[in-house]
Amino acid sequence: MIYPDSKVLLEVRGLRATVNGIEILKGIDLTVRSGEVHAIMGTNGSGKSTFAKVLAGHSAYQVTGGSVLFEGKNLFDLDPAERARAGVFLAFQYPIEIPGVANSHFLRLAYNTVQAQRGKDELDPLEFEDFVREKMKLLEMSPDFLDRGVNEGFSGGEKKRNEILQMALLEPRLAILDETDSGLDIDALRIVTNGVNRLANRDNATILVTHYQRMLNYIVPDFVHVMQSGRIIRTGGKDLAFDLEAHGYDGIGNAQPVAAGA
To answer: Which N-terminal stretch is annotated as signal sequence (predicted)?
Structure first.
């Protein structure tokens, strides 16, 4: 939702990045304010996931130009852990399994680390268990998931719910969801998107990276950006997603880049 008193959380200007010496991002401009939901859409290879990983600080990607400010500070001065503690959250397209690490221990450590950064009280194991069980209700997750290894043996939908559970616990200022709808059936999609909607408020913002319009049936974006060949070439409202669903990406292939969300 667009609020008249919203503050700029993320300001991206001319961002360029490479992986294995190949330039993927070729000049991204994007402004994200508090309270807003931005959807980034595009075909495979357009640079969507690269953009998400660069913001999170993935080591495989090299920033070669441009700037990114997060709450007015240079994001590239922070390593990935520092970005997470500052309030940048990335939900992975393919969450990894961590055998031998109990989900409850992983979640409590992440939560307490962020609490310490914010100058707030940490929770002991018993306090945390009560707290996390309430959050799990939001994702319709059984408490049994707390005793299992992180994502170990989880279905695709269960892994994605576990990602949003982390988001619910960490309460990030900026949540970046990298194709969270990928591999979800209709029930899992409903549960996950309901969780995302309930976590959104006037003090945070969300960037949704997706191929398809179907996720936007549940999460209504304030802005839709179309990425192609490492650039944002079109920005519009939610109707742009419907146009893409109806007519595909070919019709915008010759569009000129625009300053997105500025």
So the answer is: none
User: Does a structural domain hold residue 208?
Assistant: yes
pTM: 0.92
Query: For residues 165 and 163, what is the distance between their CA atoms, to the nearest angstrom?
Result: 5
Residue that is written with structure tokens 């640079």 in the block: 47
Contact by Cβ (8 Å): 11, 55: no
CA distance 213 to 244: 8
Q: Are strands 61-70 and 8-19 parallel, antiparallel or unpaired?
A: antiparallel
Helix (H) or strand (E) holding 162: helix 156-170
For the segment 137-173, what is each residue's pLDDT rounded down to a tens digit?
999 999 999 999 999 999 999 999 999 999 999 999 9
Question: Quick check: 37 and 66 in contact, CB under 8 A?
Answer: no
Domain that holds residue 63: 8-251
The number of folded domains in the chain is: 1
CA pair distance 162, 147, nearest whole angstrom: 13
pLDDT in tens, 226-261: 999 999 999 999 999 888 888 888 767 544 444 445
Local structure of 62: helix, strand or coil: strand
CATH value at residue 53: 3.40.50.300
